[in-house]
Amino acid sequence: MRTPENSADLIAAEDVLLFANAAITATGQREFRSGALDQQLSLDFLHTYVRVNYRRVYAACLALDINDHNAARIVLGLLETAGEAGAEERRTEGRLIAARLARLPPQRVYRLFGEVRRAGINNRRTRAIMRDWLAARPDLGHDAVKYRSGVKTAARHVHLRCPQGAEPLAEVGAFLFRPGKLPRYEHPLLDAWRRAHYEQGAVAELPFTVAEGFAARHGMKRETFLKRAAPRMTRLERLRTHAVAQRPDVDLAAMPLTRLALYVLSLPFEQRAAHRTELTGALRTAARRAAGKHAGSWGRVHAVLDDSFSSSGSGQKRRRPLAVALACHHLLEVLAAPGAYRGLWTSGRGDALLVRPWGPTPLGMRVLDALEPGPGGAAPDRLVIVSDGWDNAPAGLAGEVLRVWRARLDPGRRTAVVHVNPVYDADGFDVRRLAAGVPTAGIRDAEDLPALVEIARFAEGRTGAAELHAYLDRRVALFLGERDTEKETENETEKGTMS
To answer: What is the pTM of this model?
Structure first.
């Protein structure tokens, strides 16, 4: 029988896991079964509840694989309520915030700085964090051109000193606050922006998103503009603007796995079939890169993958659940021992490359199929279910199958079962679960699957807050220890995409 202390620990652990699932999956955008307002209100409550009751854990979540939307919200919440933390807590939070900002996309950080300014957060620590991040940018002149309003807002808020003269920072200051005063700039992008107002040739020297506006102003043909701008376009910009047959300069295999899956699903069936070898090879290469040291270490793996109609997502997250399932399919194939993987789609399809959102969600029937022994009569070592959890053909069958399997057929837990859910349920303040005894974790990117399987074990109810806090402490130590190395790598990558 549980003691009150153990019950309190269990509740605390459940609260933390509930928030972690939300922070991984929810973005405040519309989902298939809930609107954007419902998502936002649900997230608002969770962020406030966890920050007030578990502030240490709230900050530690910055070290987890949460999405950028919630990472920015946590940073804003910590900065806004700094007075509620002690001196040691503020120091730890400051290090976590700095490390997380170094990982966030720059446009997301500049947007966050705008929210900081609108919220009136202007204490010394906040200004120091913003100054340090700006000082660490590899090319502030590039940022001033591409994210002009964001850089201007941040510079004003931290009272960034821009001296007079020919120094790079002085040129950025003149560009932001005294446009037109200098006849020319030494920084090539700043000068290209100046010349682009009257010279078409300078348009292609600018970042693509800025150049598009100037191209429209000059009335340039789209084809001509894209050809000239191609050398300076990032990989994602090339994917957005070129069809498969017209993008010889795009290395699909270098794309992140889930983003590549989204791209594949955006193609018509005819193009997918015509480029089957190229697309499948790219997905497998990306999966091997994502698996890393875990490749081949999971033994016999069976997977149930949801391609029902609800996997179409919403207008804001189009086909996102299906893309996660497709990416997990290829990743699990790499994680399993060679030849020991079996993937089952809810629709019954056998061709992963041609999946589409269709039909009901017969999870129970597919779970029954997945639990059948594979070659040699052996049960799978792992069963992974990738679904939004709306088991409806018939309703509730998957949970009942898993309950009977665990209670009667596999009480020794020879088969590890985990459910990863890419969709946040605003009404339940969590991702939807199949059964009480099945560990469930939220997932946004398939690349995070190995780490999520580790954290999902805390959802089984057999561990308490102490073990969970120890896990979070390890993740924080690793996160802060890797900060400098990862920051240098990201800066080099960003420079490479601009060249």
So the answer is: 0.87
